[in-house]
């Protein structure tokens, strides 16, 4: 089969090529073979291409974790409800940049007829631009951060950093739809801030380059702060997040765009005074059972809203997969406000 490969195993976008000698995968256990129609790009794809992303042991070397397509074959122990010919989309540990992918049926979702192949491929992972480095699976990641880690319930307030990134695009919409008292966002341009408010429904969004978002949020909340903060920046936002968090707040760390080393000092007593919880999380390293539970939550909470179009999956551009180099260059430019999708055939 054909699949996107990398010359010498790692390198710049110019090292990407279509390898027509790639072995076709075989289904085992609960896996199905899906003939891929479209796949989505994510920031971690760029890191993996450069040899900077540690892969989980079950991941193939081929890039790509989100896709849409048709089931062509199944192994013996597939999840009940999936059969050959079904149109599906889903999440994999890797291998989506190819004509065929072997994927657990626990990580598949039936594609509603009303969703295009391109839109379906952009739902599971949805990675981002400059504002999300190793953030995971868009709508699934947003669901995980919001409910399982952030412990969101109706009436809580929330701040999504990197507001125009794919994960936060999902998260803002989930927060608004499920009754958040206020939804705030940060972004790097006024245009992205307007997008968060006017298109996604955020209460307010702050340009982190021209305003002090921490002070603005404390002013907006009468000094209380927000109940949940979803962060992708890391060390550079650490102390500001602590100040912007409300008592009994939850800070969820999904990436470290500003690096992995904290410089300077901070008052650790804020954790005790505010009873804060700071928790990091990743998704690609989770087992199939965990990801399957998240898939079920996505189907329950979000899939109906994709169908009735109350939830948006902004697509920046659709490329033919032969133009994978240009697609990677666009993602690296940090100028997008939605998913980059590649179509096969």
List keywords for this structure.
345 residues, single chain, 11 helices, 6-stranded parallel sheet, 24% strand, 7-stranded mixed sheet, 15 strands, alpha/beta
How does the SSE layout of this entry go?
Blueprint: E1 3-6, E2 16-19, E3 31-40, H1 43-49, E4 66-74, E5 87-91, E6 100-104, E7 108-110, H2 117-121, H3 138-149, E8 157-160, H4 166-177, E9 182-187, H5 190-199, E10 204-207, H6 213-220, E11 226-231, H7 235-244, E12 245-253, H8 269-274, E13 277-280, H9 288-301, H10 303-307, E14 315-320, H11 324-332, E15 339-343
The amount of helix comes to 25-40%
Count the helices. How many? 11
Straight-line distance between termini? 13 Å
- Please trace the helix and strand order, writing H or E for each element: EEEHEEEEHHEHEHEHEHEHEHHEHE
Given helix and strand content, the structural type is alpha/beta
Average pLDDT figure: 91
Can you tell me the overall shape?
globular
Report the sheet with the most strands, covering strand number, pairing sense and barrel closure: 7 strands, mixed
Uncertain runs are 126-136
Q: Please state roughly what percent of the residues sit in beta strands, choosing from under 5%, 5-15%, 15-25%, 25-35%, 35-45% or over 45%.
A: 15-25%
Backbone CA Rg: 20 Å
| Number of E strands | 15
How would you describe what is shown here?
α3 (138-149) crosses α4, α3 (138-149) crosses α9 and α6 (213-220) runs parallel beside α7. It contains eleven helices and 15 strands. Strands 3, 4, 5, 6, 7, 14 and 15 form a seven-stranded mixed β-sheet that branches. A six-stranded parallel β-sheet has the order 10-9-8-11-12-13, with helices on both faces. Helices cover 28% and strands 24% of the residues. β14, α11 and β15 (339-343) form a beta-alpha-beta unit. The chain is an alpha/beta fold and 345 residues long. It has helices spanning 43-49, 117-121, 138-149, 166-177, 190-199, 213-220, 235-244, 269-274, 288-301, 303-307, 324-332; strands spanning 3-6, 16-19, 31-40, 66-74, 87-91, 100-104, 108-110, 157-160, 182-187, 204-207, 226-231, 245-253, 277-280, 315-320, 339-343.
